[in-house]
Amino acid sequence: MERYTLGYDASSLAFVSRRTLESHGAFFIDYLRPGMRVLDVGCGPGSITVGIASRIGDGRVIGVDISDSQVRLAEQTAADQGVANAAFQSGNAYDLPFEDAQFDALFSHALIEHLAEPVRAMREFLRVLKPGGVMSVATPDWGGFLYGPPSSDLTAAVKAFEALQVRNGGDVNVGCKLSQLAIDAGFEQVMQRAL
Ligand SMILES: C[S@@+](CC[C@H](N)C(=O)[O-])C[C@H]1O[C@@H](n2cnc3c(N)ncnc32)[C@H](O)[C@@H]1O
Known about the structure:
Layout: H1 10-17, H2 21-24, H3 26-29, E1 37-41, H4 49-53, E2 60-65, H5 68-80, E3 86-90, E4 103-109, H6 118-128, E5 129-138, H7 152-167, H8 178-185
Helix pairs in contact: 6-8
Bound molecules: S-adenosylmethionine.
């Protein structure tokens, strides 16, 4: 079983919607060029996707999310910001609704930690990328989280959330495994760095 742990309540959405390409996807910016066709998988409310749109000129970014509610929210985000070169649609990372070799670059932020079969998803990412295309993914590794001041309640809360995410099929320690997963999925020239 796989279930998205964070959910879509107001506090979760407020937390996710604060993100921008600059704050959470800066590692992708150097790969963006005018005219590119880009896919953002697990786009959520689209706050990062619109940043991608702003850096590809007459190119086009498509945000895909498994939740229709997020697709609608992302469409609203783009409309509110007057972004015309971003489109959103429902889709599953394991079975993307696109033909082979459609995208120059693929971005995915904070999705992989929720997936039970990350290599399967990355193989799907590879399928929709054009030959020579770039996949740029980031997701946390909870083993690297620092929080304070020391609090047994906070520690217990974090441990409980971790246990829930694992029970839901996710992997809270996947951040450090991303390069190996990409190699297993068939990507070449893999590079990993801590953010
Ligand atoms: C933590 S949010 C990240 C949103 C956005 N990428 C960001 O970082 O602001 C993860 C998103 O992935 C979506 N998601 C979960 N499982 C998915 C799947 N199998 N395929 C596509 N999207 C999925 C969720 O609906 C959620 O909107």
